[in-house]
Specification:
It is built from 13 helices and seven strands. With 330 residues, it is an alpha/beta fold. The chain has one domain: Aldolase class I (TIM Barrel, Alpha-Beta Barrel). It has a seven-stranded mixed sheet, with helices on both faces. The longest helix is centred in the C-terminal third of the chain and has 21 residues.
Length: 330
Amino acid sequence: MQSSLARPPVLAGCGERRGLAAVARCRAEAAAPVWTASRASAGPYTGRDPEVKKPAWLRQRAAQGEKYARLRESIGELKLNTVCVEAQCPNIGECWNGGGGAGGEGDGIATATIMVLGDTCTRGCRFCAVKTSNKPPPPDPLEPLNTALAVASWGVDYVVLTSVDRDDLPDGGSSHFAQTVKALKELKPGILVECLTSDFRGDLEAISSLANSGLDVYAHNIETVRSLQRVVRDPRAGYDQSLAVLKHAKGSREDMITKSSIMLGLGETDEEVKQAMMDLRAIGVDILTLGQYLQVRSSYRAGELFIQNLVRNNKTESSMDPYAEITKSN
């Protein structure tokens, strides 16, 4: 007596495989994309339709334009380094042209992040493209003055100073940073200066020295959540050490704005991000930026504008408070 169940159909190419499992495999094979020599040369199949065009923002034109050329020439003549160049930032045309595109159609204030203490870092964080060495060249003693001269000539109102890590220097480069800030303030007293610093190996004296140099914003990035520190950052950096830097900076000058940043999309959970936010707020950090190494159009300039207004508002409120000086003296 034959079974009343219908026999499964046999797909072309399945040979004598007639079981349900075999048929399922055949159907899956038939539906799978055909692997060709041209596909093999393009890399493994990712599931993305190769006919779908990538979004327009994924491509940036080569940087050009009058403002870009002027900044590039000035930086080259004074032998300055910038994060924009050393980190191979794709937004360099947008920022150096003043907020427009890479072609020079911007109409805002040009922004460049100056990198002091040379172009060679003593640490090797995995997200960074800056070159590394255990024994980088000594800092240029004329760099603080040259930096101030360049920035003053650009006519900017807000400048960001950052640096490579210099574990080879006794104070991690803190005094070099401070000299640059003082030179900037002497040449252009009204300029607002943000310093995005290393952790100075946790040297509290180095942190205090820079915090009291006249800068307006003390920035130090924790980079990622606690669980991913060893994956993302150099082993000499650490979550708790970075928190200690920011806490001590705020304690050195309570009227100074402190700032930190976290990269997203590295495998962290929402809860870990929230915990990092709470940890930063608990030590008085005023500003937190969240970034991602994906979209090439940057909101960094918008962040600088926000901080610039915040600093000036704080100064205005302090000058209008009749009890501010009395409180400080007590």
